[in-house]
From TrEMBL:
One of its GO terms (molecular function) is lipase activity. This is Lipase. Transmembrane segments: none annotated. Pfam families: Lipase_2. PANTHER family: FASTING INDUCED LIPASE (PTHR32015), LIPASE RELATED-RELATED (PTHR32015:SF9). It comes from Pristionchus pacificus. It comes from the Eukaryota. GO terms for biological process: lipid catabolic process.
Amino acid sequence: MFHLVDSMISYRILILALFVGFIAADEQFGPFTPDFVTFLNEHPVRNEYAISSYKEYGPTGTFGGKTDNQTMNAIHHPVLFVHGNSDSALYFSKDSTGWTNSVRYFREQHYTGYELYGLTYGSRNLNNSLHNSITCRNLVGIRRFIESILSYTHAEKMDIIAHSMGISLARKAVQGGTVHMTEDQCDLGPSLAHRVDSLVAIAGANYGMCLCLNEVAVNMPACGPEGFGPGTCGRTEDGTEENCRVKENSCERDDYSSVLQQINKGPKEAAFVASLWSNSDHVLGINNVAWGRTTSLVKDLTFADQFTLVTTHSRHGGRPRRIY
Ligand SMILES: *[C@@H]1O[C@H](CO)[C@@H](O)[C@H](O)[C@H]1NC(C)=O
Ligand SMILES: *[C@@H]1O[C@H](CO)[C@@H](O)[C@H](O)[C@H]1NC(C)=O
């Protein structure tokens, strides 16, 4: 009897596993559709960033666009997903899980591929994450991608969901203006805030990350003036990682990342801005490898919240807004 129950359970698990395996193997959300690639190629210089992402990263590197037999009538605002440091547009590895969970969920809620967009930037290797910082190439590239989605879909407004470093890129790309880097500067044009309905920001580091004060990280590009250095708040002597994490410690003098300061001084990016984070994020390890893991979890587990926030401007739902 017990054996029977046991084997029935195993049998069910096996069936479930096969079923899930089948779904996973069958689901392919990327890359960009041929129709969208054709559109991008009409302005190859302007769209170079999206085109090179399409060419470089394969089927998990990009997604979005209409298929041959799809009508152009979007029901929803198009949504752009911007991944974080070392991540991918769609599932690439256990450390670079991309937006697959979100895209699957939005598709289940009747969003079409014509309404969901993403691309990949950077190395998709978590081991390199401390070497990456906010660059003009990524800012200008994301800005151009936003413009091309608006133009391709003829949408008046779009939504943006971004994770970690992707939030900084998306915020500045929408804000526009000139960004001053140590050895570079870029002009992003006028604000696009009037074209963005919702911005959902997941596990952002808008004031830097305390772990950047750790000696392993402090001199790395990801923790510099174009990265996520939290500064010492004028506490030159006791500006340590531990002190940075103490809630009660107020800031005497802002000296966090120059680019983050420029972004935080910029105009609001959207009609509705939501921020999601995890209370356990502060346990992030202090070395390179741990960076991003906990925040990726927030991203992967909040797909339903992302949907509800974008469609109803509330975490608890309510009457869905039919837009467009
Ligand atoms: C729509 O087009 C896609 C790819 O272009 C194809 O796989 C699918 O079978 C088509 N669906 C219908 C209903 O024609
Ligand atoms: C990252 O580093 C670890 C430890 O050195 C190594 O085992 C792993 O293969 C590296 N991952 C990638 C994707 O290179």
